[in-house]
Sequence to fold (270 residues):
Amino acid sequence: MNKPPPCMVWLPADHRLMGDHGHLMPFLLLGDKYARAVKVGAQAQPVMFPLADAEHIPDLLPLVDGVMLTGSPSNVHPVHFDEEVADPSLPLDPVRDSLTLALVKACVREGIPLLGVCRGFQEINVALGGTLHQRVHEVPGLNDHREPKNAPFEEQYAPRHAIRLAPGSVFEDWAGGPDAMVNSLHGQGINRLAPGLEAMAHAPDGVVEAFGVKGARTFAYAVQFHPEWRCTETPFYAAIFDAFGHACRQRRSLRLQAADLARSRAGIGA
Fold:
């Protein structure tokens, strides 16, 4: 029997200008830790579609078994939730926004497994009608959720605070209890949760740390923290990627069955 093709997970690229001596060139970037978490934690093949935009989604989405929206140094442009830019010094990526906000809606509509992390978490909320705090640390009553940027990565991604998980939620199952310690590396955060989302974890100050898409046909969850960081070393993080990978394999099975059926109806041998 032929070995089935690997599950493929689409990870959109960041768009960034890079260079030195005043000479900048555009680059398409994907963080190794995200691709590695998909490869090792979800047991799927990460893929990119360079220069894809929203009009290509109907052609590209049927080729993959899941979508992961990664974190990024850039923020979701506030124009998408009717605000002005609060801090012009912070990086933005409007080209990524134009793809990912449409991609979220397509995944939910088509029942494609969807995992959002940090910026991806915020993208899902904005795409479905929610809003963001652009500077969480300046909102009265909320804590500073940013990482110590000059510290080694091991310290930046170290557990920073506890989160309370919704009783009976998949996150409680994945964590093995009602709370968990997570890292914290974000300046933006959810202000108004989109109507189509259900909060499933909160930080001690009330900031939403995880949610699920209401009525989703498959895996459709996102987190504000970073479970991709050495995901196999933390059981809670590993469980998130394991569940995502399981959903992607189910999607692959359905996709292959549909392809076999189409060949059969066309009278083409397997």
